[in-house]
Specification:
This protein is 66% helix and 0% strand. It is an all-alpha fold and 181 residues long.
């Protein structure tokens, strides 16, 4: 049972929430349970949509953002986000081997690999990444702007991970047995 049950779209009377949910459904082709959980609160839904929208306009590609999402979901043991970002990752061109590697904080591209390791370290250290490690990430090609953009994506994904933990959101994406061991 879900602690914060996903709302039935047909019962939502707030026109702004309804319009936002309809936009998500148009974009994804479905209305995932996580958004129906966010629909309990205009603040919660808009916080996600606005931060996600801003993050999408940054220098990180859609594939890199999905790889970060997978690394963070794995670090936070979020089955819902692991399933969702595996599906969305596939939609933006990640192949199964890249999805599995991202969960381990690995990537073929050295700069992306550095970003994934940084994301994992931000989660593991609660943002207290040692300066010596930041220097290593900089030497691997991450400038200050990229480091901060990785942080934005980590924060966005921690928000969804923790929402799904609190809500016990029913997973409505295909599940991958390799996720969250």
């Amino acid at each position: 049972m879900s602690l914060l049950a996903p709302l039935d779209r047909a019962t939502i009377t707030d026109s702004q929430i309804a319009a936002s949910l309809d936009g998500v459904q148009r974009q994804l082709g479905v209305l995932p349970n996580m958004f129906r959980v966010f629909a309990h609160s205009p603040v919660a839904l808009n916080a996600y949509l606005q931060l996600s929208g801003v993050a999408a306009k940054g220098r990180l590609s859609a594939q890199q953002r999905e790889q970060i999402a997978l690394a963070v979901a794995q670090a936070n043991d979020c089955g819902y986000c692991n399933a969702a970002h595996a599906a969305i990752g596939g939609m933006v061109g990640l192949v199964p081997a890249q999805i599995a590697a991202a969960r381990r904080g690995e990537a073929d591209d050295p700069r992306t690999a550095a970003a994934l390791r940084l994301a994992q370290r931000i989660v593991a250290t609660r943002g207290h990444v040692p300066l010596a490690e930041l220097d290593v990430f900089k030497a691997e090609g991450l400038d200050e702007a990229t480091i901060l953009e990785v942080l934005v994506n980590v924060v966005l994904n921690i928000y969804t991970n923790y929402t799904n933990h609190l809500a016990r959101t029913p997973i409505d994406f295909p599940q991958d047995d390799r996720a969250v061991a």
